[in-house]
Amino acid sequence: MKDSARVVVIGGGVVGASVLYHLTRLGWSDVMLIERSELTSGSTWHAAGGMHTLNGDPNVAKLQAYTIELYKEIEEISGQATGAHQTGGVLLADSQERMQWLKMAHARGRYLGMETELISVSEAKTLYPLLEEKYFVGAMYDPVDGHVDPSGVTQAYAKSARLNGAEIVLRNRVVELNQRPDGTWNVVTEQGAVHAEHVVNAGGLWAREVGRMVGLELPLLAMEHMYLLTEDMPEVAEINRATGKEVLHAIDFGGEIYMRQERGGMLMGTYERAGRPWSPKATPWDFGHELLQPDLDRIAPSLEVGFRHFPAFERAGIKQIINGPFTFAPDGNPLVGPVRGLRNFWCACAVMAGFSQGGGVGLALSNWIVNGDPGFDVWAMDVSRYGDWTTMAYTSAKVRENYSRRFSITFPNEELTAGRPLRTTPIHGRLKAENAVFGASYGLEHALWFQEPGRQPVEDVTFQRSNSHEPVARECRAVRDGVGMIEISSFAKYQVTGPGAELWLSRMLANRMPKTGRIVLSPMLNDAGRLIGDFTVARAGDERFYVFGSGIAENYHMRWFQAHLPNDGRVAIRPLGLDLTGLSLAGPRARDVLQAVTDHDVSAENFRFMDFRRIEIGMIPALAGRITFTGDLGFEIWVKPEFLAQLYDMLQIAGEEHGLTLFGARALNGLRLEKNFGTWAREYRPVYGPEAAGLSRFVDFRKNDFTGRDAALREREEGPPRKLVALKVDAGDADVIGDEPIWIDGRVRGWVTSGGFAHASDASVALGYVEAAFADETEAPFDVEIIGERRPARLLEEPLFDPQGARMRA
User: Fold this and answer.
1) Helix 469-481 vs helix 665-673: crossing angle, to nearest 10
2) Containing domain of residue 558, as a range?
3) Are residues 558 and 585 both part of a single domain?
4) What would be an example GO MF term here (predicted)?
5) DSSP H helical segments within 539-636, as ranges?
6) Which of 146, 195, 351, 456 is disulfide-compatible with 86, CB 3.0–4.6 A?
7) What is the pTM of this model?
8) How far is Cα 492 from Cα 385, in angstroms, rounded to an integer?
C-alpha cells in the first residue's frame, strides 16, 4: 500500500468501484480504494442486480440510463463480464391512477431520449405471459431494463480502474480520518496511514460510521430487503423456448413486487409495507458475506398478491429466500457530493439502486472532484438537500415510510406525514387554528392553503385539480383585490458583515450591490456561468447585508459561500434560519394595513419599491423590505422569533377593516406564475445560464470580477440553445406539475419546469425551456403533454398580470 494518493475512496462496493473508475477515466491515476474486506462485501454481493431507467426525477433517470449504457464500456476495457441481460421490462399498472403515472413517465422519457412505449394489457401479456390480465389496466415497456451480475459489474469497474493506474487495497479497514491544517487528510488504516488530498465516503452499510469519523451524522438507514428464488418453472422454459429469449424484467406496482428470470426459475422481490430497519444505530464492522434470517410472514401480503397476479409462482417451489440490508436516505435518492465545512470530503452513500445509479453517481462525483462541478443537474442526489435537523429518529421515520411506499404513487400535491411536524415557527398553532393545510419544506411546516371553517384541513391527492382549487382561488383573488398575508419564515436568510462584505458579495453575485437602505435581485453563478442561486440582497448598513434565498437550498448555498470565504477575517456570513422569521403583506391595500401598526411613514414617496429599513411595529423592532414574490404592492417584514406571534396578531387585527386574508404557498405559486416569476430548483438550476433563464437584466457585466462572468458573457453574445418561456395552456382539469414535454410543430422541443393555475387571471400557466429558435414564435403551434394528452398552448409575450409592473411600484 502506498503512503499517499490524490484520492482515497473508502468502500469496495459497486459505488466505490464506480467512483474509482471514473476518476481514472478523467485522467487521475494516483487514486486508491480501501476496502475493509473483499470487493462487494456489504450490500453489493446479495443485490438482485436489477437495472432500469425509471425515476421520479428526470435528471436521475438520465444518469440511470447512462449507467446501463456504461456496462458495455467497462466490459470491453476490463475483459470482465458484467452479466448484463438487457431483457427489456414491463411496468404494470393495476389502476387508472398508476396508468396516469406511467403516461407521465413515458412523456418525460420523450425529451430524455428514452424509447419507452405505452402498451395495452393484452400486449403486456404477449411480452410477459406469466401475468393474469384481469388485474391490470395497462403497462409501459422499456427496452433497456434488465439485470446484471453484481459481482461481475463491481469487478469490471475495479479492473478497469486498475488498468488505468488505480490501486485497490483489500482486507484493510479505515479506522480514523484526520484533517491536516492544509485541508488534506490522514487516512489511518489497520495497515498504516495514507496521506490523501481527497476522501470519498462510499462506505455503504458503514457510511454512517465513516461519516462519524469526521463528525457527521449522515441521514441514512439500512432496511432489511427480501427476495425469493424459485425452483425451475416449466412456464419459464416454455417462454424461453417460444421466444428464444429470457423472461422480461417486470414490476407490479399494485403487488409491490419486481420479478426477473434467474436460471430456470424466477426471482421475485418485494418492498413490503411492514419494512424493518437493520442495525439502526451502528453497523458492526465484522458483518460481511452474511444474510439475515428470512421472515416470510412479513412479506406474505405482497406474495399473496403476487401469486394471484402471476399464478405460475404459486405452483413453483421456493429454492431460496435472500434477506439482506440495503441503505436508504429519507427520500430514497442517493447522498452525493461535498460536505459543507469539510474541505475535500465527499459522499457517495445511500445508493440503494446501485446497478441502476452507480455509474451515474461515479460520473457526477468524479466530475465534481476533478472539475469542481458535477456536469449535470444532481440536486435530487445532493447531500446538501438535508440539514442538521435530520436526526437519527427523523431519518428512521422517513426511510421506513419511503421503503413502504417504494412502488406507491406519490401524487404531486401529496404531503407525506412521517417525521412531521418537526420544525415549526411560533405561529404554527395560530395557522392551524385557521384551518391551514400544511406542507413541509426543508423540514419546516408551512401553510399550503386554508380550508373553509368547519371542513377537515385535508387535501385530496390527485393528478387533477383537487379540493384545494376553490379555496386557493379565493386566496389569490383576495390578494389581487385587497390584501393578503403569508408567513415567509421558510425563506433562507443570511447575514453578511464586515469591512470586506460588499467586495466579497460583489464577487459572489452577478448583480451590483445595493446602496444602504436598498434591495437588489441577483443570480449567483458557478465558474461555468450556470445558475446556482437566485437571491434578494438588502443592505442595512455600510458593513451589513441581509441575503434572502430558497429555503430548501440553505445548506447547498452555505457550502458554496463557506468554500469561497476569504480567510482574512474581513467577511463573516451566518445563516439565520429561524433566528429570523417573517410575514409578508401583499395586495393593493397592503400599505394601509402596515401603516395602521407603525408610526413610520410607509407612503409611496417615503418607502419606495425595493427600499429596506428598520422600523418599529408597535413595540416590535423589525426589518422591512418593499418587495413581494406576488408581483403586487407588498412588504416583507422580518422579526426575531420571539416577536412573530405578536406581529401576526397585530397585523390580523389591523387588517380586519381592510379584509385581510391569509394565503399559503399554493396561492403564492399561482400569483407568481401570472407574473412569469421563476423559482430556484425549477426554472433556475445549475444547467441553465442567466441568458437562457431570462435573468440577464440582473447581471451587471460592467463588473469584471464576479464568478462566472466570462462564461455568462459568452452565453449572452452567442445565445443559449434554449430559453425560458411562459405558456398559457388549455389544460382541461389537470395542470402541469413539471417535466412535461413541450411540443412545437409536432416535435418535442422542450420541457416544462413548473406551472399550475393562475387563479386571478383564470388561466393555466406553464413555464419551461424550449429551443431558442422558438422562444419568440408567438404564432407557432405549441402543445404541452399533460397525463398523456397533448393540450394546445399559447406563448405569452408578457405576463398575464400587470406586465409593466405598475402595481409593485404603486
Assistant:
1) 60
2) 492-578
3) no
4) oxidoreductase activity
5) 554-563, 590-595
6) 146
7) 0.96
8) 13
